Structures are given as structure tokens and as C-alpha cells.
Amino acid sequence: MENLGWRRRAYVNMGLIVLNVVYFFYLEITGSTSHTGFMVSHGAMYAPLVLENGEYYRLLTSIFMHFGINHIMNNMLILFILGDNLERALGHIKYLIFYLLCGVGANVVSMAVNIREYRDVVSAGASGAIFGVIGGLLYAVAVNRGQLEDLSTRQLVIVIMSSLYFGFTSTGVDNTAHVAGLVLGILFGLILYRRPRRKPYREIWD
In CA terms, which of 37, 128, 201, 206 is 20 to 30 Å from 73? Predict the structure, then answer.
């Protein structure tokens, strides 16, 4: 029998990608995603405005914003490749909740670390949420004995190591959000993901 799980479309994941791309082009048309002040005025993360002015919406809006074309292309490519697997594993609603929780949670952790280290930075990007997706997939693959659809533990570990290496060897990257997203993804995967029970085989006679 054909595995119907492979046929389920990842509507939420594709919707998230479209939303990111549409907002990116809106920002490019009305200003510049390379201009820090412009990005702050349109929802990027900036701790003083969050804490002093109560603009907590930035914890959410910033995960749909990107600095430049390369930033959004890299993030959306990873989300396109991996996000549909996790959406099929969790289901549409759980996946949306998972994604947003990882993105917002990674921003909270990043903001706390920046405040503690007296760093006054502006940040934006879906990387925290995407690392959350990778972490959730790592957990789901692990409980499925190292294989989930076309993903294996080895493949995900390679993605994680290469992504973290790129982040820590590059400038202007919020590595705290990356690591926080990864850890949160594993934790929320533990809470939200349930390994499907295998139905017993039945013999059918013609």
C-alpha cells in the first residue's frame, strides 16, 4: 500500500516561506533591508524598544524579516528542504505552533544574552525558528530509530554541524539564537511529537 504520509502537502511550511518572501520584497520596495534604522522601524528585534517601550511584538515580527537577499535565500532554502518533513510529522497546527514558539523563544534567549553582555544589537531573521525545525527533526528521527521519511540522523547532524560552523566563523550572525532555537526545537519536539503506532498487518484473501 502507498504511504499516504508522503502525499500530505505541507501547507503551513509553504505559507511561512511565502510570508517571509512577500514581506522581504515589501521592505525592499518601500526601503532597504540593508538599512538598520529602516528595519527597526518595521519590526526588527531591538532590546531597548522591547523592554523600555513594551514593543513585545518584535519578538514575533523579526522572525519574518531578513537583512538582504542572501540572508533570506539561505534561510528559505533550508526551510523548504526540511520544514515539510516536520510538518508531516507534527501535523499542520502543531507545526505552526512549534515554529513560532522556537522563533520567539530563540529571540528571548538572544535578547537576554545580549543584555547580560551589554551588547546593543539589531537582529532579524528566521534562523532561530529554522534551527528549531532542525532540532525537532533530530528528535523525531532519533525516536524513529534514525530514519524519518528521507531523513537520517547522520544527514541532520551534518546540517547542524555545518550550519553552526558557518555561523561561528562569520560576522554579524546571531549564534545565540541559533543554538537556542536548536535546543528549543528538541524540547518542543519532545512535547509535541508522538511516534505513530504501526498498524498490524492483515491478510486479505481473494
Answer: 37
Distance between CA atoms of 81 and 27, rounded to whole angstroms? 25
List beta partners, residue 151.
148
Angstrom distance (rounded) from CA 145 to CA 152: 9
Helices (H), the chain: 11-30, 36-41, 47-53, 58-61, 69-90, 92-116, 127-143, 153-168, 175-192
Identify the active-site residue in 62, 110, 127, 163.
Answer: 127
User: What cell numbers appear for 63 in the block?
Assistant: 522572525
Conformation bin of residue 70: beta by default, left when phi > 0, alpha when psi is -120 to 50: alpha
Single pTM value for the model: 0.88
Half-sphere exposure of 173 (CA within 13 A, CB side): 18
* Residue 127 known to be catalytic: yes
C-alpha cell at position 185:
526545537
Q: Is the pLDDT assigned to residue 41 strictly greater than 90? A: yes
In angstroms, rounded to a whole number, what is the distance separating the alpha carbons of residues 94 and 98?
6
Q: What percent of the chain has pLDDT over 70?
A: 91
- Rounded Cα distance, 16 and 164, in Å: 23
Helix (H, G, I), strand (E, B), or coil: what is residue 46? strand
- Look over the chain and give the mean of its residue pLDDT values, rounded to a whole number: 89
Tell me phi and psi for residue 94, to 5 degrees. -60, -40
Alpha-carbon distance of 42 to 3, in angstroms, equals: 44
